[in-house]
Amino acid sequence: MKRLINFTPSRIWRIGLALLPFAAIILLYISASDARLAENAADKLLPSFSQMGDAIQRLAFEPSKRSGEYLFWQDTVSSLRRLGLGMLIAASLGMFFGLMTGALPVLNASFAPLLTVVSLVPPMALLPVLFIVFGLGEVSKVALIAIGVTPFIARDIQKRTLEIPREQLVKAQTLGANSGQIILRVLIPQLMPRLIDAVRLSLGSAWLFLIAAEAIASTDGLGYRVFLVRRYLSMDVILPYVAWVTVLAFTIDYLLAQLSRFAFPWHAQQEGKS
Amino acid sequence: MIEIKNIWKRYGDNVILENISATVKEGEFITLVGASGCGKSTFLKMLLGTETPSQGSILLDGKPIPSEPDANRGVVFQQYSVFPHLSVLENVVIARAFEKTRLGFLWGGAKRAARQEAAELLNIVGLSHMQHRFPDELSGGMRQRLAIAQALILKPRILLLDEPFGALDPGIRADMHELVLDLWRKHKLTVFMVTHDLKEGFHLGTRLWVFDKRRVDAQAPNAYGAGITYDLPVGVCEQEILDEIDQSLAVKSQVEHV
């Protein structure tokens, strides 16, 4: 018998073991749901899978009686648009500030402390300010994501920039490079995969900001819907929506990881070595 | 070509280098040896321009040597000398891109010409079969070959080598010595090479500098800095002197570690 720390499951076993907890949770849910529904057929707390299926069928594949829109897809598109726009702004600004403060000591001296302080401001506490300044429309929701995520990305990129070995910068200078050329050809290309990593890490908080902003003031979106139907205890809508958000988050994360692997093959090699 | 006039280097109370003067002619190959931490790398960094002397001056052709790195002085470090995000070929081409364009991107004919030139250089250092690989796929010796090719494409007058082969296996080291000597002769470079391996110093180049403390205060080991204690033409000196140097360095480094 091998020691436990040396015991590695084979590929097939690995997949089976990974699926096991998921299956267990679903089984547990089904049995609990069945038990409650057997006692009270009108119970709303743990709807059966067929009830959830019906709810999604209604929201996703039948036009809304009131507006004629397919609410599920409309919610998804609105939320993803806000999330995408917010992350795009955050990634661009974060890259810019992180790169500049990381690469140029003068800017580091004047802006790095500010960046540290700004990153400590709780973004959710700024939400009322955003609503007052930008109104209740799209801008304030996108702004919340951008404001919440930018400092994190900026600080991460700043740190990554400073981690690039000094020798490379000296080497570039001995090849005649000026500051601009070093930033464009040595720093930015090496920071791009790190930017993708930072975006992946900050997507969790981005979703948090998105759903919070939608819950408070919105007329559509995934967060809006779950908070709206909460009033009717519609667990048959809330649970599939939460699952859907999880699937979306997982897919985005996966696509970003693949993008990083294909666009920056050297980065994967480096990761593998260190 | 290079004149070093009474340079000192201090960090606070610690004296690293003490009153070093020397003259170097074009085309010399100088090997710098000494115990670790004796300041030979600091000296090299002054020649490179990333450190400045606390006192004294280094003149290049009668003018103070620029205090930041430039294309006149190529460098190879022990590691991190190459750009990990560029292929082997691009690592060499990039020097021409820096030289010829504002933003550092070559296009069309200029790019083809630079690639051609880089490929020839890679052929000389024996990396032509690795052109399209990334540095992390290369062995340590190959990476240093690449770093040397990269440093030479712009034909610098001075080549600075900071323990370039310290991390390599002995067999590969011997190959690298051949390569460096060959390139030095061909390109008529002035080479400064730092090494902690005394034997390397005896076999390479034309001149050997030994960095060591002339005075030692046992109560304050950092009160005195290192100077050049031996300045020998390579190939002329006798075995006894080399043994003597070897011994003095060994004793000193023991004292410092106690």
Notes on the protein architecture:
The complex is a heterodimer of chains A (274) and B (258). Chain A has helices at residues 11-39, 49-61, 71-103, 105-120, 123-134, 138-163, 166-174, 179-216, 222-229, 235-263, 265-273. Chain A has 274 residues and is mainly alpha-helical. Chain A has two domains: 9-43; 59-63 and 70-264, MetI-like fold (Orthogonal Bundle). In chain A, helix 2 (49-61) crosses helix 10, helix 3 (71-103) runs parallel beside helix 6 and helix 8 packs antiparallel against helix 10. The model of chain B has no long low-confidence stretch (mean pLDDT 85). Helix content of chain B is 37%, strand content 25%. Chain B has two domains: 1-72 and 156-258, Rossmann fold, CATH 3.40.50; 79-155, no CATH class. Chain B is α/β, with parallel strands linked by helices.
Strand content of chain A: under 5%
Cα-atom radius of gyration of chain A = 24 Å
Tell me how many strands of chain B there are: 10
**Fraction of residues of chain A in helices?**
over 70%
Shape of chain B: globular
Q: How can the largest sheet of chain A be summarized?
A: none
CATH topology of the largest domain in chain A: MetI-like fold
Helix content of chain B: 25-40%
Radius of gyration of chain B: 19 Å
